[in-house]
Design goal:
The chain is of the alpha/beta class. It has two domains: 122 residues, no CATH class; 212 residues, Spore Coat Polysaccharide Biosynthesis Protein SpsA, Chain A, CATH 3.90.550. The protein is built from 14 helices and eleven strands.
Length: 385
């Protein structure tokens, strides 16, 4: 029995080896795409509320080194972002900027309802969909649309990294992305291909959206980004994950806000992929190390499991963060890995107790894949998507 428990406790090391191999292969083989493919683009941005540094986020999309594109915003009347959008139009008179007022729809997922209207009213076939907290470089549109020159490609998505980190909680979140979230994505790429998209940025076409019914079929569901990528892949098209990263401006400062945000993500995943969610237990190396030492409390076992755990996790984090995404200061965050893994384990365990999620101050149950409002919430802070 003792030997069996020690063997089971070593399973996460197998996962770490696969993740390291997948990451090495991805960053060595990922393609950039042709830079001479420059179709007109409609950049769609659903807006709700005022994100930190919103003006600079929006302005970065107006500084694109791209010949022909428009930016379409959709925002509700009286939204605090409206004055910022008005200033943007005044400051960038040579950029095609359109502001649509409201979705005109009644879907539970307000973001998706807005996207449904924007796709319908976009001027161009090629679409880039991005969140309001995203900030980009001038080559953004050129890089995103390039893979769509290949007729087999149906969608393009990319990584995202923080624009800055001013608190230890924000550094902890980044460690979680580099050591936990992205390794899982790259392992999925290696084993089964990319069959999802990442929310901050998706590039596709109106045709590929219409093949599965478009955003109207998703406007009562959570995780629209994952769904869009999955449905495009199921339609027989490739979803490309670029070796490219946009920046996102952190909108949380407390550990509680971070916990609630990640709890919502993982609770949605439990509802959508219950077996995959359960399998995450074998990616959580830290609790298995404690099980190993409890099974055989010797210095050799402690050194082998805890030492091996920290080495593997550090190599994976450095490989993705420093070598792959070219982030600075990753070395200085390595000591936060055990702290993140402890929190990630707690989030995973807590998700099994959740029958609802909190999104923008409202509680929802997920019933047969749809969001069903529970009751208005007034006591807990809003946690943005």
């Amino acid at each position: 029995m003792r030997t069996a428990l020690l063997a089971i406790s070593a399973i996460p090391f197998i996962y770490y080896c696969i993740a390291i191999f997948s990451s090495l292969r991805f960053f060595r083989s990922s393609r950039l795409g042709s830079t001479d493919f420059l179709p007109p683009i409609s950049n769609l941005k659903p807006v709700r509320g005022l994100d930190p540094e919103a003006y600079e986020n929006f302005a970065s999309f107006c500084r694109q080194d791209y010949p022909n594109y428009e930016i379409v915003f959709c925002v509700d009347a009286n939204d605090p972002a409206l004055p910022v959008l008005g200033r943007l139009k005044n400051d960038f008179p040579n950029t095609k900027i359109r502001i649509l007022m409201g979705s005109g729809r009644t879907g539970t997922n307000d973001k998706v309802s807005k996207l449904a209207r924007m796709v319908e009213e976009a001027s161009y076939e090629h679409l880039v969909i991005s969140d309001s907290d995203v900030r980009v470089e001038p080559n953004y549109l050129c890089r995103l649309v390039a893979p769509l020159k290949d007729p087999n490609v149906g969608a393009v998505t990319c990584f995202y990294v923080p624009s800055s980190e001013t608190t230890w909680v924000q550094r902890l979140q980044d460690v979680g992305m580099l050591s936990d979230f992205y390794p899982g994505i790259l392992t999925a790429w290696q084993l089964d291909g990319i069959k999802f998209a990442l929310g901050p940025t998706i590039c596709t076409t109106r045709h590929h959206l219409q093949e599965f019914g478009g955003y109207p079929v998703l406007e009562n569901q959570p995780a629209d980004d994952l769904q869009v990528g999955r449905l495009i892949a199921e339609s027989g098209h490739e979803v490309v994950l670029l070796n490219y990263a946009v920046s996102t401006v952190p909108d949380y400062n407390s550990l509680r806000e971070l916990f609630l945000k990640r709890l919502r993500w993982i609770t949605v995943m439990r509802q959508m992929r219950p077996w995959g969610h359960a399998g995450l237990v074998f990616t959580l190396g830290l609790p298995w190390c404690f099980l190993a030492i409890a099974t055989q409390p010797t210095a050799v076992v402690a050194a082998a499991y805890f030492g091996g755990y920290f080495v593997f996790r550090s190599v994976l984090t450095l490989l993705i963060g420093s070598a792959g995404l070219k982030q600075r200061g990753v070395w200085g965050k390595l000591l936060l890995i055990p702290a993140w893994d402890a929190i990630a384990t707690l989030i995973w365990l807590t998700s099994f107790t959740r029958k609802s999620i909190r999104w923008r101050g409202q509680d929802y149950r997920i019933v047969q894949g749809n969001l069903v409002p529970v009751q208005p919430a007034a006591t807990e802070p809003t946690v943005k998507v």
